[in-house]
Amino acid sequence: MSDPSIRDEVAAAARRLAAEGLLIGTSGNVSARAGDHVAITGTGVVLANCAATDVTVVSLAGDVVDGPIAPSSELDLHLRVYEETGTQAIVHTHAPFGTAVACVSGLTSLPVLHYQQLGLGGAIPVAPYATFGSPELAGIVADALVDTQVALMANHGSVARGSSLAHAVENALLLEWLATLFHRTSSMGRPRELTEDQQQSTVAQAIRLDYGTPKENRT
């Protein structure tokens, strides 16, 4: 791979997510695409201690290009999402609240309770269950992510994609915050969802203000 820094970036992202409590032990995986290659955390790596040497580089066909450790067992999932969405980075976690919400019977999506969720695509789908590391799971998750930045995986965890590794990490952190919000509101009563009109008004306001983009003071 011509740019070894991508392995350092993937390792740093894994360590940050572990520090935030989204990656526990060896559970979860992080990847980033660089041209015709993908750098992904290796299988069995304790992600809180992830180093560049724990990140494996593969081709888009899944052939190992560099790295001493076999790639994550969810490699097929990452490659399928890259193929279907054209994204640049993917984070898969077993974050506590996201995983808990993904285990709720009958819940097919996380409703929009807070306007920040609209930046991820609106209601967040809960992809049906399939065995980890299977081609079936890879296809299900890729389909779920076509029109959204994040998804929950039934009885498994969560996944986020982004235009960059930093973007994917922030999306994963926001998804966990939203899952926590849903859990807390559900414990107090029926969550109050934003209506379609409220959502459209929020989107229009975000566009008008260029919300979330740093701006210079004009004094």
Instruction: Quote the average pLDDT.
Output: 94
The number of distinct helices, counting runs of at least 4 residues, comes to 6
Which percent band covers the strand fraction?
A: 15-25%
Structural class comes to alpha+beta
**Low-pLDDT ranges:** none
Give the C-alpha Rg: 18 Å
Give the neighbour order of strands across the main sheet.
4-3-2-1-5-9-8-7-6
Q: How far apart lie the N and C ends?
A: 47 Å
Q: How are helices and strands ordered from N to C? A: HEEEEHEHEEHEEHH
> What helical percentage do the residues reach?
25-40%
For the sheet with most strands, the description reads: 9 strands, mixed
User: Total strand count, please?
Assistant: 9
What is the 3D form? globular
Secondary-structure blueprint:
Elements: H1 5-19, E1 29-34, E2 37-41, E3 55-59, E4 64-66, H2 75-85, E5 89-93, H3 96-102, E6 109-110, E7 124-127, H4 135-144, E8 150-153, E9 157-162, H5 165-188, H6 196-209
Parallel strand pairs: 7-8
Antiparallel strand pairs: 1-2, 1-5, 2-3, 3-4, 5-9, 6-7, 8-9
Keywords: Lyase, Metal-binding
Protein name: Class II aldolase/adducin family protein
InterPro entries: Aldolase_class_II_sugar_metab, Aldolase_II/adducin_N, Aldolase_II/adducin_N_sf
